[in-house]
TrEMBL record:
Transcription recorded as keyword: no
Top-level lineage group: Bacteria
Membrane-traversing stretches: 12-40, 52-73, 79-97, 104-124, 130-147
Membrane topology field: Multi-pass membrane protein
Cell compartments where the protein resides: Cell membrane
Organism encoding this protein: Oceanobacillus profundus
Protein name per UniProt: Aromatic acid exporter family protein
UniProt keyword terms in alphabetical order: Cell membrane, Membrane, Transmembrane, Transmembrane helix
A single GO cellular-component term on record: plasma membrane
């Protein structure tokens, strides 16, 4: 079993430590509440920390209002606390504040666990201060400690997923992998692409960050990554169609089988080269690449022409693959143009 301590784990621990230090200096009781708030408030990006704080202000206002109303009307019996928690959660979800529900519940419970001395203004301020210290400690640590290099992390995820698709597009035409193993590989690839898409949403949030030094370069980079993820999704679709239909095509027509196999090999090499060109590891001659793309287009046209007049069964097997290849080719061509524009800008700067 692997045991890795990532930056977010370290930042969460530091946020808890900072929270306990601050509450200890101020002399606040129930510092455990502040520590829990710090853990809940740690976000994967700076902009999400900003958004989280905004949501906390709104959701906790709702929570405090219901907690005080619950104390006055129902008291602090466990059933009363439960009723207030349920109502507050429902309202927060209705307002779209799903991410801060846990912190709102913590605030409500903290306020409603009033001692025999009763509730007063100082009591409310102290309880709210515990939550505020935890949230602000998480934000400060997130900004100052290990600021995440989202571009580097996301490209690494794209590259890993791309290498997986390249591997599958090499082995499927050769039919060198068992069906159970292929299904496992496909599931793993699907998870990798989904994680990449989720992380893209994080880096996309950073567009409005005040901490971006070279904003135009950053915006161009996330546009490139968006297209790379589109290519990954198109490759995954092609892989799924090949898994479902390739064996049947071989049984129906040997000529179509070899045409598609050749095309898959060519478009897979094209995909690898575009990514390597982005990394400045290879130089693709534009004219030579144009000839290669023309050759691929001719092969695609040959497949489509061969389908003319075919029976429905052949269409159902060949058309999904041919359509996936066409869509992938279109996205790769667009990505190549963007990569070349990006390289030209870097060379001119």
């Amino acid at each position: 079993m692997e045991f890795n301590i990532g930056p977010r784990m370290v930042k969460t621990g530091l946020a808890v430590a900072l929270t306990l230090l601050v509450t200890g200096l101020i002399g606040l009781e129930l510092e455990l509440v502040a520590a829990i708030a710090a853990v809940l408030a740690m976000q994967p990006s700076i902009m999400r920390s900003f958004k989280y704080i905004k949501e906390v202000v709104i959701s906790n206002s709702v929570g405090v209002a219901f907690a005080l109303a619950g104390l006055v009307l129902l008291g602090n019996h466990p059933i009363s606390v439960a009723a207030v928690v349920i109502i507050s959660i429902a309202i927060n979800i209705r307002l779209g504040l799903n991410k801060t529900v846990s912190l709102t519940v913590l605030t409500i419970v903290t306020i409603m666990l009033v001692s025999d001395a009763g509730i007063n203004f100082i009591y409310i301020i102290e309880r709210l201060s515990l939550v505020a210290i935890g949230v602000l400690s998480a934000f400060i640590v997130n900004v100052l400690v290990y600021p995440p290099d989202h571009q580097k992390i996301l490209f690494s995820m794209i590259k890993n997923a791309s290498e997986k698709t390249n591997f599958l597009l090499r082995v499927i035409p050769n039919q060198t992998m068992s069906v159970p193993q292929m299904k496992d590989e496909d599931k793993e690839l699907e998870k990798m692409i989904q994680r990449t898409r989720d992380y893209y949403e994080i880096i996309s949030d950073e567009r409005n960050s005040l901490f971006i030094k070279k904003r135009p370069d950053f915006l161009r980079t996330i546009i490139l990554y968006k297209h790379m993820i589109k290519v990954l999704r198109k490759k995954h679709t092609l892989i799924q169609h090949l898994e479902n239909n390739f064996k049947n095509i071989e049984n129906i027509s040997s000529a179509k089988f070899h045409l598609i196999k050749k095309l898959v090999i060519e478009i897979n090499a094209y995909s690898e080269n575009v990514l390597l060109m982005y990394e400045d590891k290879v130089i693709l001659d534009k004219d030579l690449q144009k000839e290669t793309k023309v050759a691929m287009q001719v092969t695609i046209n040959n497949i489509i022409d061969a389908l003319q007049g075919s029976d429905f069964e052949k269409w159902t097997y060949v058309f999904p693959i041919a359509n996936s290849i066409i869509e992938l080719f279109y996205e790769l061509d667009k990505l190549e143009r963007l990569v070349r524009i990006n390289q030209q800008r870097r060379n001119n700067s």
